[in-house]
Specification:
Blueprint (H helix, E strand, L loop, with lengths): L2 E2 L3 E2 L4 H8 L9 E6 L3 E7 L2 H9 L9 E6 L5 H17 L5 E2 L14 H5 L2 H10 L7 H5 L2 H4 L8 H19 L4 E7 L5 H13 L11 H13 L5 E5 L2 H12 L9 E2 L1 H5 L5 E7 L12 H13 L9 H7 L1 E8 L12 H9 L3 E5 L9 H11 L21 E4 L3 H13 L6 E5 L16 H9 L5 E3 L2 E3 L18 E3 H4 L4 E8 L3 E4 L4 E4 L7 H4 L4 H15 L3 E9 L2 H7 L4 E2 L2
Parallel strand pairs: 4-6, 7-11, 7-12, 8-9, 8-10, 10-11, 13-21, 13-22, 14-17, 14-18, 18-21
Antiparallel strand pairs: 1-5, 2-5, 3-4, 3-5, 15-16, 19-20
Helix pairs in contact: 1-2, 8-10
Length: 583
């Protein structure tokens, strides 16, 4: 049985005190420990608590802490304590009990081991025990639905995330030594953890070399130390062109020790910076802008920045700004998530690769994990001219698939189910979202705070979407909509959700997409697509590709499931070939 020790004083007598108070597990036994004071905590694992804690006491940073607890179990082994340590670090980093987590973030990798499932099921019980003794505050589901957790730099990395990070650090050391500027492109589909890895690298490269990086990877430690020696005052930033996601990352950076909200930039901040950056990490690079389909102030700004940087005023892009204002760049990129003509063309990244940029790939699916990469590929195929060759049931236990992918005949039935799941204990974070198939008539006009006020707005005719008498309003807030209290009663657009996770997503496909039986093809009705900047000066084929990408993106937001309703009867019947009906 797992136990948490009584509180011990963290003093120069800690080795002696452990031998007295923890004779069974305090020496030569795998355990996890917490060293803490009122505001800070350090979480570690060891096979010999007495020696390791004595070593910690020699560290001036640790000596600011004054109490110790040991978590032990006769069934613990090295793999278990590594896993439990990672679990506690990731959850405590998003909890509100301690203001500062002293851990480094370099050593947390996903790993499997014998009977892992039986151990992992006990971790929530350990967390509950920590809450009872006042060392944790929030419930697990509350934490895991919070952006602080989802975008935490302490998240365990997949093997390919860790390899990409290690190779980037190694190559940066080599390039800085040889004074060679370089671009990195990290390709990854939806749910492969691009944003998590970008934040992880920001934290890793912002950690003082004197601090414990939290890893036994000697090569990584050595390369981090070399890099910080070569660039002792490294000027580093993360660039996010999407304002909604950028606002979320500002909150995350503001709440994470070692990071600062001033490290988060939009592309114009970079163009107007008086200094050149050593390194810029660019998330959602497919959403960087080129001067196409822009009007008014937006077009004037991009022209002004182009001229300021010595670029052609009508051809320079935000990608050019970033390269011009930094020595090294890491672009996290997915060409299939480009959703409008102002998004930079994939040929720009292909050109970078031809000119020597190093390209790497993230392949492991961490969002739609219960459907796996097979689900992501299947969705892309549905919204393409090469549909799946056969139906796949993603609730197939024989294939170890457990993803809830269903299509509805009644939109209200779907939106109500999403709302019900959002309110269900142990689930939460479920939203209804759609492409831009209706005008946003209520924009900046109404701000309902709850279900009653939303229904009152609709009763008074203040709504945007009408599907067979079922009326809805678009997201009444733009920034941080997913986390707002009333979002369960609204329909979020693509711009509120790209880059975010949900537990379940309800997708409404508007009348801008239809199915043409004659050609056997999904077609568009551009008169029913209301993103003016997204469709101006586009050919029908280009616009079709953007809209198909939008729905492909929307259908890959859900961790546990995706529900679909299509307004066009023909399209709904077509999709039933590939998506299991709700009834």
């Amino acid at each position: 049985m797992t136990s948490i020790s009584n509180e011990l004083d963290f003093t120069n007598n800690i080795r002696r005190d452990i031998s007295i108070n923890e004779p069974e597990y305090g020496k030569e036994w795998p355990i996890v420990y917490l060293i803490y004071n009122e505001n800070e905590v350090y979480i570690g694992e060891t096979v010999d608590a007495s020696i390791r804690l004595e070593q910690h006491y020699e560290n001036p940073v640790r000596r600011s802490l004054d109490k110790v607890r040991i978590i032990s179990d006769k069934r613990f082994n090295k793999s278990v304590i590594l896993d439990l340590e990672s679990y506690l670090i990731s959850h405590m980093s998003a909890d509100t009990r301690f203001k500062k987590l002293q851990n480094g973030n370099a050593g947390h990798q996903r790993h499997n081991y014998y009977e892992r499932d039986s151990y992992v099921t006990k971790f929530p019980g350990i967390w509950s025990s920590l809450r009872r003794i006042g060392l944790a505050e929030k419930a697990i589901r509350t934490i895991e639905n919070d952006n602080l957790f989802k975008f935490s730099p302490y998240k365990s990395l997949t093997d390919d995330q860790y390899i990409v990070a290690s190779h980037i650090i190694r190559d940066l050391v080599h390039d800085v030594k040889s004074k060679k500027e370089r671009t990195f492109i990290v390709n990854g589909g939806p749910g492969t953890g691009k944003t998590v890895l970008a934040i992880y690298l920001m934290k890793l490269l912002s950690t003082d070399v004197e601090e414990d990086l939290g890893t036994d990877d000697e090569e990584l430690i050595e390369n981090i130390q070399k890099l910080r020696h070569l660039l002792p005052k490294m000027k580093i930033g993360i660039v996010v062109s999407m304002s909604n996601l950028r606002a979320t990352l500002i909150d995350v950076f503001n709440s994470t020790y070692g990071l600062d909200k001033r490290m988060v930039f939009n592309p114009s901040n970079i163009a107007n910076s008086s200094e050149k950056f050593d390194l810029l990490i660019v998330d959602e690079s497919h959403r960087l802008k080129a001067p196409r389909n822009m009007m008014g102030t937006e077009m004037r700004n991009i022209r002004d920045n182009n001229m300021k940087l010595g670029l052609d005023e009508n051809d320079g892009t935000q990608l050019d700004w970033i390269i011009k204002k930094s020595k090294y760049q890491i672009f996290f990129y997915d060409k299939f998530q480009s959703i409008k003509r102002t998004d930079i063309d994939s040929s720009c990244f292909e050109k970078l690769e031809k000119n020597g940029a190093r390209s790497m790939n993230l392949d492991t699916q961490v969002r739609c994990g219960k459907g796996g990469q097979e689900y992501v590929n299947y969705v892309r195929s549905i919204f393409s001219d090469e549909p799946p060759e056969c139906f796949i049931d993603f609730k197939d236990k024989k294939k170890k698939l457990d993803y809830d992918f269903r299509i509805f005949d009644n939109v209200r039935e779907m939106t109500d189910l999403i709302k019900k799941l959002n309110r269900k204990d142990g689930v939460g974070l479920c939203r209804n979202i759609a492409g831009y198939g209706w005008p946003w008539k209520t924009k900046n006009k109404i701000h309902p705070r709850n279900e009653r006020e939303t229904e009152e707005c609709i009763r008074m005719g203040k709504y945007d979407i009408d599907i067979k008498g079922n009326k809805y309003i678009w997201n009444s807030k733009y920034y941080g909509w997913v986390g707002t209290e009333n979002s369960e009663n609204e329909i979020g657009c693509i711009h509120t959700i790209q880059g975010y996770d949900l537990n379940y997503a309800g997708i409404i496909i508007g009348n801008e997409l239809k199915y043409d039986k004659g050609s056997g093809r999904i077609i568009i009705d551009r008169s029913k697509y209301y993103d003016k900047n997204g469709k101006n000066k586009t050919s029908d084929e280009d616009l079709r590709n953007y809209i198909l990408n939008i729905y492909s993106v929307l259908c890959t937001r859900g961790i546990s499931g995706t529900f679909v309703y299509a307004c066009d009867d023909g399209l709904r019947d077509y999709l039933k070939q590939f998506i299991k009906s709700f009834h």
